[in-house]
Specification:
There is one protein chain. By secondary structure, the chain is α/β, with parallel strands linked by helices. The protein is built from twelve helices and twelve strands. It folds into two domains: 3-195, Alpha-Beta Complex (inorganic pyrophosphatase (n-terminal core)), CATH 3.90.1640; 201-328, Roll (Diaminopimelate Epimerase, Chain A, domain 1), CATH 3.10.310.30. The strands form two sheets. Strands 3-2-1-4-5-6 form a six-stranded parallel beta sheet. Strands 7-8-9-10-12-11 form a six-stranded mixed beta sheet, sandwiched between helices. The longest helix has 19 residues, at 310-328. The radius of gyration is 20 Å and the shape is globular. It comes from Natronococcus pandeyae. This is Bifunctional oligoribonuclease/PAP phosphatase NrnA. One of its GO terms (molecular function) is nucleic acid binding.
Amino acid sequence: MTAVNTVLDHLQTGSSLTIICHSDPDPDSLSSAIALELLAIESGIETVDILYGGTISHQQNRAFVDRFEIEPKRYSEALLYSNEISAFVDHSLPGNHNPVPEGTHLDLVVDHHPSAQPVPAAITDVREEYGATATILAEYFRDSHIEITPRVASALLFGIHRERLDFYQQPTDREYELTSYLHSRADVGMLRDLYGASFLPSSVDAIGNVIHNRVRRGSVLVSCIGRLENRVALAQAADFLLLIEGIDTVLVCGIVRDELRLSGRTIRPEFDLGVYFTQVFGDLGDVGGHDDMAGGQLPVAAFDTEAETDVELVAAIRKRIEDRFFDAL
């Protein structure tokens, strides 16, 4: 039995479905959610709730939700348990980058991220060799009798592009194969506005600080800034710095409330940044990621500084981060 048939058979065991995106859902997660929603409805599901637990603050993610008329709801345990079937898309472990209690058993998980622990679900389709979860969902439609709509095809196409193709972040042959399938079924006009989505003013300020505070050693850049409101700006800044000529690895960090948030990027083909983050910062907090992008959150208290002001705190953390990252490289 193919993967899509297994998923469709399981969807037919209930009449309602809860789909949980990871915190701060991106186009890969959101497009996968509405794709699974369509598969569920075509399989006889009557009620579908799409949940998320963090924020949707990246300008393209907000525009994505508006353009595709997605209505995600804030996570609550009541909503999690109110439907018969539960599913994760683009993440796999309860309590890891999502507000679902650890140990919660799920019905279905579709993801492309590697998992260090067994996935607690009845049906799991975790494909580490794929570059995006949206690629897996696109394959479901291609291999099933269910016809994809222009809305879902367009959303999946954008999700794959943002996850892999726009930055050539090691896309696999499957991404090119499935985007070809989606392109002929998508409304490309729906996508044009998304690439022109504007930045939040707070993001522009944070990116400016990242640029100003960058430190370079060889082909590596590190930039640690102070407090910021929108942690998504760190990922945006990391993407931007990686475009600098001669740079192949970037680490950006900043303080959000009581945590130091990390965002890393690399284009070194032999490098696994997720593993590297775990080795360098794993003793301080929760870190991990892919071979070409990684992130994490470290409690500020883990740095055990004697700083009395924010200026002293940032200076102390910046030195620790730069020393660890550069020295290990």
